[in-house]
Every structure is written in C-alpha cells, then in structure tokens.
C-alpha cells in the first residue's frame, strides 16, 4: 500500500499561524533581536503587547520608535496595536511582570497571556523566565537558545493578509533568508490585493445570499471556487466594485463570470465577445473559459484576444508567403 | 521618523515553527481532514501521536494506512513516529482521553501534551473538547471553526528540513494553495539538500574547532557565513564529503573557498584557475569571487569560466569583424 501516499518529510517542526487577536504578549528586552520580534508582533495584531526593558541607551532605535509612536501613525508606527512599555529590568525573583500580564488578560475577558518572548543578554534571567513560563504552561521563546524555545520564528515575508514563512527548523537560517528572497520574486504583484478582493466578493455574496444553513454555505463556497479559480491572481487584484457587482450577477443565473466577461476596457469587451462566440459554438468549456490554454492551477493563462490576434496574424503571414511562393513558381514555369 | 522603518503589514497571525519533539499530540477524528492533519503531524516528528476515533468505515484510507504502518516503513509510513490509536468515540463527559495523554506526557518526562486537534463532524463534541483544552491551557484547533482555533494550518510545502507555509489567515485558503504551487516552482532543486550539507559542514567545523566560548562560536559563525554566502544553493547541494574536506582546509588559513576552488571536475579546475588569476591581479573581491556578477543575495551568479569564455569569444568576433571591415575598406580605397 506504500507509494500511494505522500512520503513523510521529517521537517521537525509544525508550521502554524498562531492567532493572537484575543491575547496579550510579553516581550522581555529591547535590543536589535527584541526589535525584530516586536515587528513580527505588531504585524500579528495581538490584543496588547507588554515590553519589559530599562529605558537606556541599549534600546534599539526602531523599537523605541514603535513603542513611542503616535497611535495615529498606523502602519507607519505600531500598526494600531497597544504597547505598554514597563521601563525597568525584569524582576526574576517575584516574576511580578509575568503576573501583571496574566492578571490583566484574565480580568479583561481576553484570551490572557498568549506567549512570552525573551531577547536579553542575561542567560540566567532567560532561563528563569523560561522555567516559570513552562510551569504556567505559557509558550515561550528565548532567542538563540533552542532548548528554551517552544517555537521558532522563521524568515517571513508579508503582503497584506498574505504571509509566507520559510523555516529550516534552525538548521540554516541564512539559507532560509535567501530562499525567502527568491520566493519574494515568485509572488505575483497584487497577491495581497487579490486576497482582499476575494474577501470583498465573499462578503458581498453573503449580503446577496445570507442563508446560514449548511446547504447555503456549501453553495456559496462552490460558487466562490468556480469564480476565483478562473481568475488569475493578477486579475483578482484588479476586481473593482463595478466588476464585483457584475460578477455577482452571475450568482442568480448560476454562472461564473470570468475576468473578460466583466472587465471594463474595450480590449476586454473584444475578449468577452470572443469568449461568448466560443461558448455559443461549443468550443469553450462549461466555465466559459478556454479549455486548452490553462496553467497548472487551472487558470486561463492568456487573454483570448491576444491568442486570437496571434492566430490571425500567423494565418495572414502564412497565406501571404504561400501566395508569394506560388506566384514566383508560376512566373518561373511560365518563363 | 516614520518612513525609515518597515511598514506594519497587519496579517493578523504570528507564523511560528512549533517545536513538538518532546510533546505528545492528541488528534480526535479520522476522516479526510484528520488525515491531512496526521500528515502534518508525522512530518513534525512529535514524541507521540494519540488518535481517538472509532475503527469504522469512516476512517480515511491514508489515515488508516499511516496508523497501522510497519514501523520499518519509515518515510513511506508513519515517518518513525509512534501513533497510538484509541479505537472509540472521544468520551466528552469525563475527558478521559485527554487526561490519559496529559498523564502519559507528565509521567514520561517529556514536554507533556503539546496540542489538541479536533476534526470530527460532531460540533457539540468539538465545542466541549475546545472548552476543556482552554481550561487546561492546551492549544487547540477545531477544523473549520475559527473561534475554536488557537492556531490555523496554512498551505505548506516541504523539502527535507525545509518547509514553507503560505497563510492568508483564513481569508483565502484557495489562493494560498495556488501561491504555494507557484512558490514550489521558484525553490531551487536541492534546497533541502543544501540545508543538510550546510549542517554537515557546521558539524565538521565543530569537530575541527570545538571551542565553546562566545568568541569561538562567533568565529565559527562568521566563517560559515563567509563560505555559504558565496556558494549558490545548487552548489551547496552538491558539496560531497571530499569537497567538504577541502572547504574545511580554508578554516586554518582564514580563507573561504568557493565552489570552484574545491569542485572536482576539470571544467571547475579551469574556473578555479581563472579565480586564482583574478585574485592574483587584484580583480576579484576579498572573498575570492567576482565583484560584479552577483545576484541580490550576494551569490556569484555565473561560472567564471563561462563568463570568461563568453568574453573571449565576443572579443574574437569583434576583432574579426573589425579586421574584415578594415580589409574591405582598404581594398575599396585601393580600387
């Protein structure tokens, strides 16, 4: 029976998208490593971040900037996340700071203290915090000390709601960063936009068909898949409110409009004309898109207008060459 | 001060590589979703996996295969991970199964129960398990029920120790899978191999220079960076024990041999000759590699032999054309 199923790749860790919106997070330290952690954290949008570190010259400038940013600075500052800077060294003897965050989380009705990140040069302190966290069953990460980490941070790239993590499970952080840069180039422009636009379409569909039963949910999901699978990521990113409105009209007639059915530009109207003609004579697939020129994701790869024009020009040229050749041949034989 | 620092991208979740080697994991359910979870789990190599599900026709065939695989099947089976299948419906009233795993973890000296994954059709059961896990501070994921998830699974690709997760934080799972397939194509063949070979080199270096002080660690790290940064990922993947031995000889002389310095083939010897000549006349950078033709990762992009030969042939052609033109000009002016 082996061979039928995917082989096990022993990566050694489980990649997860940890949900922190209802949690507070405690970060101990304010050096360059803590600063990089803080950036990860503000992108993750937790309920609140507590930072425990003395206010001295060792505070990383970017970290200081984010901790003291104007709440209105938004994405340019702390991303709208509340950060409380407790300006002293972590008191390892009573763990008062840990207790403070724990109590705040429980009192506020949130999910409590989600995790503790330690990034200080004080190895003794780190070990004590780690032990206390494990006693309290709070996930902990001590930078650069693998045995004191319940989780690692990989190399991450972000585009809006999209995030990609490259992990080598600590075996090659530098190769991970190199691969992350290669991957960055392979992600189409507007991937983050495309995800947002699919979210908009899903929300609009729920307004048109608000049913909450399992059948309604399944129907909506099926239609969303039919529509989005025939749009490329670049096309999804270009779906504006007008186009969304026209796509939604397909829901009533149980059809899945393609990009070329709803795009406004003249060239796309020509393409849509081609699509409709193709459908009418039965050349095109049931989704209404070209049955041949699809990428491995099942998306239409080329604009049908371009394909058609290419065919036309190739035909013109072939014919002209044939005519010229025949002309020459007949004029030669006449000689 | 804004603008200096990266903008916050509100992805809404924290991507983590969760360490499970000392933990047990409880999986409730054995349908297709549970089966996909189980594959993630065996790749993560936890201490032990407990599965609670009745032994009936609803068990997914791949899941049944992995749960009952011969331990010697290795990567083709359960990847060497111990799986205990508790063949009954989860008893939500006493949570006996959860208690069993908790006690086993504590008794065995391991890290205890790391997380609970629920993938059943029984929504009432799922909600009860989730509540009990939150009471016990055990991270939990109930498939398809976001409010009952402390973490999500993204779309993951794996190559040996390398793993890449694409997450849209639940906003576009289908787009995540499409991007994962695009990313798959951008990852060089042998990326997993390259990570393994860098690990081998690091281990060999520790045998040559076993110092445990901070200085020794920093020196080793610096040299590893100097070496690996001038090897492409494809070259690293080809580092065999002979080449590794020759690379290590660079440690004593504080030099960082490039691929072309240590590769065995004749063509590479020619390339190395070119590199050495370049270094001798001071044309090449201190690392010994071309100062010009580097990709954004700082790696040598082309084989110097090819570059040189291209230059040579271009020169030959330029000269020939010039000579021919001059010849023609002078013969014309002689007429």
From TrEMBL, chains A, B:
Siroheme synthase central domain sequence ranges: 159-186
The reaction(s) this protein catalyses: precorrin-2 + NAD(+) = sirohydrochlorin + NADH + 2 H(+)
EC top class named in words: oxidoreductase
Biological processes per GO annotation: siroheme biosynthetic process
Entry GO MF terms: ferrochelatase activity; precorrin-2 dehydrogenase activity
Keyword line: Membrane, NAD, Oxidoreductase, Porphyrin biosynthesis, Transmembrane, Transmembrane helix
InterPro entries linked to this entry: Met8-like (IPR028161), Met8_C (IPR028162), NAD(P)-bd_dom_sf (IPR036291), Sirohaem_synthase_central (IPR028281), Sirohaem_synthase_N (IPR006367)
The Siroheme biosynthesis protein Met8 C-terminal domain, residue ranges: 188-257
EC number(s) on file: 1.3.1.76
Pathway assigned in UniProt: Porphyrin-containing compound metabolism; siroheme biosynthesis; sirohydrochlorin from precorrin-2: step 1/1
Stretches that traverse the bilayer: 305-326
Protein's name in the database: precorrin-2 dehydrogenase
Originating species: Rhodotorula taiwanensis
